[in-house]
Amino acid sequence: MSAHSSHSRAASPLSAVRARPLKGRVRPPGDKSISHRAFLFGLLACGETKVEGLLEGDDVLGTGKACEALGAVIERLGPGQWRIRGPGLGAILPPRETLDFGNAGTGARLMMGVVGGHGITATFDGDASLRKRPMRRILDPLRLMGAQVLSEADGGRCPIGLKGARDPAPIEYRTPVASAQIKSAVLLAGLNAPGATTVIEAQASRDHTEKMLAHFGAEVIVAAEGEGRRVTLVGRPELRPATVVVPADPSSAAFPIVAALIVPGSDIVVEGVMMNPLRTGLLKTLGEMGAHIEALDRRVEGGEEVADLRVRHGTLRGVDVPAARAPSMIDEYPILAVAAAFASGATRMRGLSELRVKESDRLAAVAAGLKAAGVDCAIDGDDLTVEGGRPRGGGMVSTQMDHRIAMSFLVMGLASLEPMAVDDVAMIATSFPDFGPTMEQLGAKFR
Ligand code: S3P
What we know:
Layout: E1 14-17, E2 23-26, H1 32-44, E3 47-52, H2 58-69, E4 73-78, E5 81-86, E6 99-100, H3 105-116, E7 121-125, H4 136-144, E8 148-153, E9 157-163, E10 172-174, H5 180-190, E11 196-201, H6 208-215, E12 220-225, E13 228-234, E14 243-245, H7 250-262, E15 267-274, H8 281-288, E16 292-301, E17 304-312, E18 320-321, H9 333-341, E19 346-349, H10 362-372, E20 377-380, E21 383-387, E22 396-397, H11 403-413, E23 420-422, H12 435-442, E24 445-446
Parallel strand pairs: 2-15, 3-14, 6-7, 10-11, 18-19, 22-23
Antiparallel strand pairs: 1-23, 1-24, 3-5, 4-5, 7-9, 8-9, 11-13, 12-13, 15-17, 16-17, 19-21, 20-21
The protein binds shikimate-3-phosphate (S3P).
């Protein structure tokens, strides 16, 4: 397989201009979280795993390359269709070169779990954004399981040299923050542990790893614990290769959805959107804001409920978004902030500390972008308050190597009074390579 690297791209700015009513039907790309995991499980299951609807974005392709470096044979059979022949659990190989995850925290962190549970050594690295992201949250539990950190930069940052444990110790681990990436890294390391590995989270985070473990034949027990969950995996299962059908990514669907809500006269359908309740916090919040979003033809695809979402423009009102909702909409705050800028009244989003450690400091990047567009907003501790109205636009947003910041402010420019520019759209290819054409199909104009 081949993957293009986002680091080699030159920065390319783009502006969005006020659009006429958006109309039509679009299907967002495959879910990024599930796509990363599809490659990883293909590596860990011995035999032939097939994937349909894979997100062919830079982040996921980077994970695919890393899986190849650990012994998987990966082939693209057609658009979104891939075949992975995995060496299987316990039989993965030490990579000869540094594993380069580009912009992708998910790829790097989940693969640290895989390596951490095998007696191999690997070096993890990525672009300037990934090099800023905290990795101790992953390395700490892996150390408890017996892995050794051979080298790290700047307080637990990439590049990181990791020597996995040949016989990882099964642990019971309480995650310090509700993070599916931490949970997944521990469970993936626990796959090769002789006994039960348990992760306890104070609030439930996305459950794609648990679901995929079960889909590939592992025994996983999930129980409620307080407001959160206790997930137990029985180690050393025989992972059976399987077919993974990837539903459309709700985090990518968020962009056309909010575009239709804020561009007057819009009426669109966004097809096949995954409705996993641990991913639908944005839809809930937009519903509370008075958005017209109808879920049509609810059905099950690839083990997940999906729906076609009909979205119509209408007036939105500001709301208070509780901190407890953050895990179910963690990647959607930048685009929610854009919707809030067009609402009547203020929207207060609480408990956003995790936004500071995403592909950029999203709390700061969102506030700076809103200010560039003439929108009043304030950060108070971990909360963001956005004063709604009719954004002037006209600013240039610094995207900070963050795809979701770029897409959010391009969406804003479709409805602000003046065009909205972003300094670089290269990173959009990490999660939504066809963002431009998809939005243009609905009537958006970029220049
Ligand atoms: C992801 C989990 C989330 C999310 C990221 C994808 C995953 O991160 O922000 O884009 O696939 O597990 P955290 O688990 O660190 O919150």
